[in-house]
UniProtKB/TrEMBL annotation:
Keywords: Membrane, Transmembrane, Transmembrane helix, Transport. The lineage of its organism: Bacteria, Bacillati, Actinomycetota, Actinomycetes, Pseudonocardiales. It is a multi-pass membrane protein. InterPro entries: ABC_transp_perm/SBD, MetI-like, MetI-like_sf. This is Glycine/betaine ABC transporter permease. One of its GO terms (biological process) is transmembrane transport.
Amino acid sequence: MLQEILSWLTDPAHWSGPDGIPHRLLEHLGYTVVAALAAIAIGVPLGLFVGHTGRGGLALVGLTNGMRALPTLGLVTFLFLVLGSTQTSTLIALVVLAVPPVLAGTYAGVQDTPRGVVDAAQGMGMTGWQRLWRVEVPNATPLLLGGIRNAVLQLVATTTVAAFVGLGGLGRYVLDGLRVYAYPKVAAGALLVAALAVVLDLLLAGLQRVIVPRGLRLAAVTRRRGGVAREPERVGTDVVAGAVAREGANG
């Protein structure tokens, strides 16, 4: 079987044309990127608002849990029957399924900001808007980006399922192979999806490492492991002090 899979992947005929691997890969990546950007545009502002104000936290938890419980194929098929457009219905379904991890990561990141740090920012005269963007958002970045990474991985897998309603992408290899019992093609399609997921996750992990300061990464690890509380407080206080210093310099 392994030899047959490698033969299918290395066959030049499978690397050209509308059904070739490059074309299907770009289709799959395009659906994933569009849905991820839409989920970020919805989930991040909503998560920041609820996390900062504390309003609607219980409703948010219930909403995200309910959205996560939706069956992927069932939602895609339902929207396809209602809207009649394969691409539109599928993209809407992908966004619905990608919003919960982004929303939950953003909300948890803001809530994870040490209260002492927020109180210190308020004591230094920062407004609510300044506390959000100069203190809470920097502290929330590790969990926020973690939620985005989770959403992207789910999108890569879910886009594969969307081939059952006529969408393109790498899922076509899995579906078309099952129809004619071409199991090397099915396995090759699954390997391509897995490889795409790994590559995207590594790219996002590298981006997260570049964006998130080392101190905040250590603070997040300390909090998750239940370590010494002084470390995240100190790092967060440094963020407040830096924000106030920048504000004074700009003034």
